[in-house]
Amino acid sequence: QVQLVESGGGSVQAGDSLTLSCVVSGRTFSSFAMGWFRQAPGKEREFVSAIRWTTGRTYYADSVKGRITLSRDKDKDTVYLQMVSLKPEDTAKYYCAADRQAYSSDSYSYTSAIGTYDYWGQGTQVTVFS
Questions:
Q1: Direct distance between the N- and C-terminal alpha carbons of the chain, in angstroms, rounded to an integer
Q2: Are 72 and 78 in contact (CB under 8 A)?
Q3: For residues 32 and 52, what is the distance between their CA atoms, to the nearest angstrom?
Q4: For the chain, what is the largest distance between any 2 Cα atoms, rounded to a whole number of angstroms?
Q5: Is the CB of residue 56 less than 8 Å from the CB of residue 72?
Q6: N or C: which terminus of the chain has fewer CB atoms within 10 Å of its end residue's CB?
Q7: Cα–Cα distances in angstroms (integers) from residue 88 to residues 27, 40, 44, 130, in the given order
Q8: How confident is the model over 2-40, as pLDDT tens digits?
Q9: How far apart are CA 29 and CA 70, in angstroms?
Q10: Half-sphere exposure at residue 41, Cβ-oriented, CA atoms within 13 angstroms
Q11: How confident is the model at residue 44, as a pLDDT?
């Protein structure tokens, strides 16, 4: 059974940094991608970033480009979402997700689509105060 567990959320001041982690366990697939999405109250879930496990290629939403870095540790089956210069509009619940068929496409449109992902974590809350 595939499980994704996020951690690292919290409450910070604008301008601060935060690193979220997501550990994936129970996977039997090797060519996959890990993504991060976020959902603010009253808004739809939106794409933040993703990384292809095999190649390390990363994808970023325009809204976070330059402020977020996504990386992976293959030995720990963990991805890290490093966020700097946080803004109040970054406040949301952040979800980790896994696409077990990443070999299907490497396009941004495919990788950033919610429907692409097969497994989801429970989310971790990030609150940024002004």
A1: 40
A2: yes
A3: 6
A4: 43
A5: yes
A6: N
A7: 35, 11, 17, 6
A8: 999 999 999 999 999 999 999 999 988 888 999 999 999
A9: 21
A10: 5
A11: 97
C-beta neighbour count of 87 within 10 angstroms: 14
Rounded to whole angstroms, the Cα distance separating 99 from 111 reads 8
Neighbours of 86 (CB within 10 A): 21
Could you write out the DSSP letters of every residue in 62-130? Answer: TTTTTTEEEEEETTTTEEEEEE-S--GGG-EEEEEEEETTGGG---HHHHT-GGG--EE---EEEEEE-
